[in-house]
Every structure is written in structure tokens, then in C-alpha cells.
Design brief:
The complex is a heterodimer of chains A (390) and B (336). By secondary structure, chain A is mainly beta. Chain A contains 3 helices and 28 strands. Chain A folds into 3 domains: 155 residues, Sandwich (Jelly Rolls), CATH 2.60.120; 152 residues, Jelly Rolls, CATH 2.60.120; 43 residues, no CATH class. In chain A, 4% of the residues lie in helices and 50% in strands. The relative contact order of chain A is 0.17. The chains are: A mainly beta (390), B mainly beta (336). Chains A and B meet through strand 1, strand 12, helix 1 and strand 20 of A and strand 1, strand 17, helix 1 and strand 20 of B.
Chain lengths: 390, 336
């Protein structure tokens, strides 16, 4: 077991949204760009553009990867070896553009993805409006919006989705344009509880939980922050009251929970439940696709859920909740020895009876069964799993 | 091996710091408090208060743990405690025994508060308290409450006041200065700043993050890198100064990727950001959290394994400061 004091784990540990805005590309110079440091060496061949409005008959726009100018701003120069795609972006929605001449980048390169006017300039009648920036709160972390509308707007945040040819994400795309990405949560309504389904990829001790609740909540709202197991049985709860906590600002609430060991690769839920008839908000990020979630810290293991009246959670896999855990210990050596994919197994043991005995290698136990892995998979499906009672 | 996508590991995972400030308790009602959610069940015997300065001969203040009401600190004692009457004779961090300890329960909401005693301070005789170091993505681990005419609030990670349990643990860490940043310059003193760190597990590192102040100096190109203790550069990224300057915010968190490198558990490395030549006087500025005691670094994400380091130009003579938590982190993709 490895002590990791005070580690905030999960999507919430990488910035939060502060604002978002869109920009009409309605003249010869307005452009949308995102500047970023290439996270790996490879070929960038896909850009996704979220068009929020379309007017008249927009001309085609140029979409591509470009080089920065001497001041680090986007310029009209395609990345060496790549070329713009001329694209019809008419109509609202997410447009996926595959570059016929993609950009080969090296890890650490600072590059831009751009959408800019093509040969025929758009105008006030014929144009598209594109999401310009979803800005990180305070922290100007690349990727960085560097769009132009008479002047460059430089802010930490994202706007375009940018992807390598192996499908991995360089800059994630966010799918829904909302004033603030959130869910309204209120007692006796369609949603009285919302949060995250999550897994941790190792055994860990959880000592607290974090949720990002927005400024639009009612200042007299009361709530319960809750941890459930995979069967939606309540494990922990902490009662909060915004009359005491001050909800006037966007806020990450980190609350202490009784120390609890989380099992690896096992579903849990962390939620906030409204406990009176006042509105709560929980920030969330609807992304273009599952690949986009991977950009956020351990984001692949987190999905937004909601429910009402304690009904089973409804999950939106392509929406990332702004949630996280406070961890105190991580155990990497113990790989999963439970079978959450075998519901027919029922629950013969309490959760704390699952897992590898303290200090024992899971492979040792797997070897007892004549194999040298703790699990066997067929494609994505785990078909055999060692299971040890301690 | 555990694939984690990409995570930010280290104190930099808390985002960058915001400004620290001060508040004068110089009349009959000015007061300061820090709201806390009790991190564990136990007995609180002491509080700690960080005093920035003393003016004149201040009277004794009340120092205690109090209940909240409608979001504001009261003077009603929490957990069976009794406040102390305390004479702050000098600047610095004061460890003050409660007149009666408090029985705290995990998750309880209460406040550490300093307020005037029987004799009111005045404009000639008062204490000046720090109001803490905030993050711009605030976390509700503590909240500083300052009362002048009304209560106002700041939120953050490093507090001006803390509680001490009977096992000696202190929560949250104590801020000791309004100076939160260090320039590093091509002129050379220091030329390179960063973190001396180790990981509790082996991991693949694909980049780093760092909190930077935009303003003051003319920014320069720099080199972000990891060095071993023999000062061998293990991975690096040359960064153009405009990565620093194209943003408009005064304080930024920069995210950089470099060629992946495997780091070994328990091995010490240095994460260095080194100023490169871009004109005399050019330089950048990095942030740290100043804390009262080295043990309080443990409050930050894996902070017990991170401390500030810097060196001047020329030979590799590094100087560590265990009382500064560097606002740096690593981007990790796999843990082993």
C-alpha cells in the first residue's frame, strides 16, 4: 500500500469551466483556433467543429492544423506537409472533418487547429457560428483558445476537438452549448440526485469526495453527498446546507468521508441528492464521444448519472461529471480479483471480503488455478476472473 | 501496470495559487475566522494563528472554535471547547492552547475564530492576520471569513489558522508569507526553479504542469525538464516565451508534454524550469505555497514527496526549501 496524502482523483482535478461563448465567422478575418502542445508524436487527421448556428448559405471554410506565428498566434500557414480541408459547415451540429493531408507532429510541438474563411469570405448574412471557448476557471492551461474577432481572444480552454489517426485525443470536444454545463437537481422533480459512476483502476483508500456545484443553486438548498456501491447500496453520506456553506460562487466541495477501501475496477457512485425543494446544480461536461473523456484525469472511468426518488441511476456515458475523490492510499500490486461482471454471482461476501490477501500477489493465487493471469478476456469481455476470499 | 489516461500528479494538481492578503483586527468588531469541515474524529487541543505583523501593544484577543449560523461564525463554542484569551506579542505562527479542548466529529462544520476580547484593539494597537492563499478553482476545505463591516469570504487551500488534534496533526496547513513566487532569470539568480520530488510508485511521465505569474519581467524562453540527482537531463521540452505571454491572465497553469520517460518509485528527481537566453533581465516567475512546517506539505497532493528547489546559473548547486510546496506537477499516463 502506498500513502498518497491528499490526492484529489478524477476529472475534477483538472480545472473547471468558468464560461463559454460562441463566435460568428461572418467576415474575412474572424477565425476559431485552439493552440496546444502536442501530447505525443503522431499524425493528426481529424478535427471536430461544433456549429451552434448557421445563417443563409455559408461559403466553405478552411479547416486544418497550422503553425504559430512569431508571437505564438495562429496564422494562415498549414503545418508542414499538411493542407486545409475546404469544408461546408452549414447547419448546426458537430461536424467531423478528416484531413486528406494530415499533420505529422512531434510531442511538444505547439500547434493550432483552425477554422477560418476559405476562398470566399462569409458575411453578415451567410455564415456559421462556432463554439469559441469553454474556459477553465482561473487556470489558463493549454489547450488555449486563440480565436480572432478584431483582436485575438486568448484564454485557457477548448473549442475544437482534435484527434490523432489512431483515434486518441489531442484536444477534447465538448458537445453541448449551455450557459453553464449543469444539471438542475431538486427534490420531487425529474432529477433529485445526480453525480458519477466511477471506478478506480487500483485499490485505494477514499477519505473524501468532491463535487463541483454551480452558482445557480439556491442559497437555501440542502443536500446529501453520497457514496454508493455498485448495487446502489448507500455506503457513506454527508449532509450539507448552503445556508452554512455559502453557495454564492461556483464551488468545489470537498467533504470528508469515513475512510473506506475502494476495490479496483468496480463500480461506485458518488452523488449529490437534494434534500429540500431548492435547486442544486452539478457541473458536467457533455463530450463528443467516449474518446474525449480520456483527456480528463482518469476520465474514461467516470460517467454522469442521475435519478429521482432513489430509482436506479440513468447513465450518460458521453457526459463527464465534475466529480472526484480524496484518496489517502493506493495499492497498485493487487489487481482485480472480483467479478463485477458476474451479477449472477450475487453477493455472497461483503465487499471487504473480496480481493487479494494483504501482501499476496494476485498472480500467485491465479497460478493456483493453473493460469498465469488474474483474468482472461475475450475482446472487451472478462470471461474468467480469479476470486479469493480473505 | 495501470493505465490512467493522463493524470496530473503532485501539488500542481490543485491548480495555481491566487493572492495572499492580510486583515487588520483594529477595532471592536473586526474578526477573522477559518471555516473547517473536521477531517477526522478526535480531540482538538490547540489552534494555530499566523500573524503577519503587530502594531503597538495589542490587547488580548479571544481565540477559539465556534459554531456557524447562517454561514457566519458565531461566538458560541464548538464541541464543548472554551476559547482562550491570548496576547499576540509578536508576528509569526502562534500555537494556542484552548481553555477547554473540543471533541470533533468527522465532517463537522465549525470555525477557528479570533475576535476582540474585553479591551478592544484600536488603530494604534492591533494585530494583522494573513487571509490565506487561495486557488482560483476553490475547494471547500476551509474558508477564510473576515469581518469588518460585514463578513466576507475567501476560499482556498492554505489557511491563516488551523486546528491541532491531540495527536499533533494540524489542519489545514498554515500560510506564513504573502510572498508566493520566485523569479528565475537568464541573468542567473536563480536561473532554474522547480521541485525535488519522488513518486510513491513507478510511472510513465508524459509531461508536466506549473503555475506561473505573467507580468513583471520580460518573459524568456525556457526549458522544462526532469533531471536525476546527478543532473543528467532525462527528458525535456524547449518552450518559447510566447507560450507564456499569449494568455492574458496574470496567473496561469501551463501544461506541457515532452517525450515519455519512466520514473522509478522512491527515486528522487528534480523537475526544473530553466530560463534560457532571451535578453538581459528576461525571466519568468513560478509559484509555491509557503507553509509553517515541512510536515504540513503532506496536506497537498502527495506533497510530502515534493519540495521547492532552485539553483543559480553555473554549476549545479541546488538549494531546497522544505517549507515551500512547489506549484508543479507531472502528467502521468501509466502507474506500476
Amino acid at each position: 500500500m502506498t500513502a498518497v496524502n491528499g490526492v484529489l482523483w478524477g476529472p475534477i482535478s483538472w480545472g473547471v469551466w468558468n464560461q463559454e461563448a460562441a463566435l460568428a465567422l461572418n467576415n474575412a478575418t474572424n477565425l476559431i483556433a485552439v493552440g496546444f502542445v502536442a501530447p505525443k508524436t503522431g499524425t493528426i487527421n481529424t478535427i471536430k467543429v461544433r456549429v451552434t448556428a448557421s445563417a443563409g448559405v455559408p461559403p466553405d471554410y478552411n479547416v486544418g492544423i497550422t503553425t504559430p506565428d512569431a508571437n505564438g498566434r495562429p496564422q494562415n500557414v498549414p503545418w508542414p506537409g499538411s493542407a486545409y480541408e475546404s469544408v461546408d459547415l452549414a447547419g448546426a451540429g458537430v461536424k467531423t472533418i478528416t484531413l486528406a493531408s494530415p499533420a505529422a507532429v512531434t510531442v511538444g510541438n505547439y500547434v493550432h487547429a483552425q477554422v477560418r474563411p476559405g476562398g470566399i469570405a462569409p458575411d453578415g448574412i451567410n455564415n456559421v457560428t462556432i463554439i469559441r471557448d469553454l474556459t477553465f476557471s482561473g487556470a489558463d492551461m493549454p489547450p488555449r483558445n486563440q480565436s480572432y474577432a478584431g483582436a485575438f481572444d486568448n484564454q485557457g480552454g477548448i473549442n475544437l476537438g482534435v484527434y490523432y489517426d489512431d483515434g486518441t485525443v489531442a484536444v477534447p470536444g465538448v458537445a453541448t452549448y449551455e450557459a453553464t454545463p449543469r444539471s438542475t437537481i431538486r427534490q420531487a422533480t425529474a432529477v433529485d440526485e445526480a453525480g458519477a459512476r466511477f471506478q478506480v483502476p487500483f485499490s485505494a483508500k477514499m477519505v473524501g469526495a468532491a463535487l463541483y456545484m454551480g452558482s445557480a443553486l439556491a442559497l437555501s438548498a440542502t443536500f446529501s453527498m453520497r457514496l454508493y456501491d455498485r448495487n446502489q447500496a448507500l455506503l457513506e453520506a454527508w449532509a450539507g446546507d448552503f445556508r452554512e456553506l455559502d453557495g454564492a460562487f461556483r464551488f468545489i466541495y470537498v467533504v470528508p468521508f469515513t475512510e473506506r477501501t475502494l476495490l479496483p475496477n468496480t463500480d461506485y457512485y458518488i452523488t449529490v441528492r437534494a434534500t429540500n425543494a431548492q435547486d442544486l446544480n452539478l457541473y458536467r461536461i457533455p463530450v463528443f464521444g467516449l474518446a474525449d473523456k480520456v483527456w480528463w484525469p482518469n476520465g474514461a472511468n467516470w460517467s454522469y448519472v442521475e435519478t429521482a426518488a432513489a430509482a436506479p441511476f440513468t447513465e450518460t456515458p458521453t457526459t463527464l461529471p465534475y466529480a472526484g475523490l480524496l484518496l489517502s492510499d493506493i495499492t497498485l500490486e493487487a489487481q482485480p480479483l472480483i467479478s463485477p461482471e458476474r451479477p449472477d454471482w450475487g453477493t455472497p461476501f461483503a465487499p471487504e471480503l473480496y480481493g487479494t490477501p494483504e501482501g499476496k500477489s494476485p498472480l500467485l493465487y491465479a497460478s493456483f488455478f493453473g493460469i498465469h493471469s488474474s483474468e482472461i478476456r475475450l475482446g472487451d469481455r472478462r470471461v474468467w476472473q480469479t476470486y479469493v476470499r480473505r | 501496470m495501470v493505465s490512467v489516461g493522463q493524470i496530473i500528479w503532485g501539488p500542481g494538481g490543485l491548480h495555481h495559487v491566487n493572492l495572499n492578503s492580510t486583515h487588520d483586527l483594529n477595532d471592536a468588531d473586526n474578526s477573522d475566522a477559518v471555516t473547517i469541515l473536521a477531517p477526522k474524529t478526535g480531540t482538538i487541543t490547540h489552534v494555530r494563528v499566523s500573524v503577519a505583523s503587530i502594531t503597538g501593544d495589542p490587547p488580548a484577543y479571544n481565540v477559539g472554535l465556534v459554531l456557524m449560523s447562517l454561514g457566519n461564525p458565531t461566538v458560541n463554542a464548538y464541541g464543548g471547547s472554551l476559547p482562550a484569551s491570548y496576547d499576540f506579542g509578536a508576528a509569526g505562527v502562534h500555537r494556542i492552547a484552548l481553555a477547554n479542548p473540543a471533541a470533533a466529529n468527522l465532517g463537522d462544520l465549525f470555525a477557528v475564530r479570533v475576535w476582540p476580547g474585553g479591551i478592544a484593539p484600536d488603530a494604534l494597537n492591533f494585530i494583522r492576520l494573513f487571509t490565506g492563499v487561495r486557488t482560483d478553482a476553490p475547494h471547500f476545505r476551509w474558508r477564510d471569513n473576515s469581518f469588518s463591516v460585514i463578513w466576507s469570504y475567501l476560499r482556498g487551500m492554505v489557511g491563516p489558522m488551523a486546528v491541532e488534534y491531540d495527536d499533533g496533526s494540524v489542519y489545514p496547513p498554515i500560510v506564513t508569507s504573502t510572498i508566493l513566487s520566485q523569479q528565475y532569470e537568464t541573468a542567473g539568480n536563480p536561473e532554474e526553479v522547480g521541485a525535488l520530488f519522488s513518486l510513491p510508485f513507478s510511472a510513465t511521465c508524459i509531461g508536466c504542469v506549473g503555475g506561473e505569474l505573467n507580468g513583471g519581467l520580460v518573459s524568456c524562453d525556457w526549458r522544462a525538464r526532469i533531471l536525476d540527482l546527478a543532473n543528467n537531463e532525462l527528458t525535456a521540452l524547449a518552450v518559447n516565451q510566447w507560450v507564456y505571454t499569449v494568455v492574458t491572465a496574470a496567473r496561469e497553469m501551463l501544461t506541457l508534454y515532452w517525450p515519455a520517460i519512466d520514473l522509478v518509485a522512491g527515486t528522487q528527481y528534480r523537475l526544473g524550469w530553466r530560463a534560457l537566453t532571451a535578453g538581459v533581465g528576461a525571466g519568468n516567475t513560478s509559484f509555491y505555497y509557503p507553509v509553517e512546517a515541512a510536515a504540513q506539505r503532506a496536506y497537498f497532493p502527495s506533497g510530502d514527496l515534493w519540495q521547492w528547489t532552485q539553483r543559480n546559473a553555473g554549476a549545479f548547486v541546488w538549494v531546497e526549501d522544505p517549507l515551500k510546496v512547489p506549484v508543479f506537477g507531472l502528467i502521468l499516463s501509466e502507474l506500476r
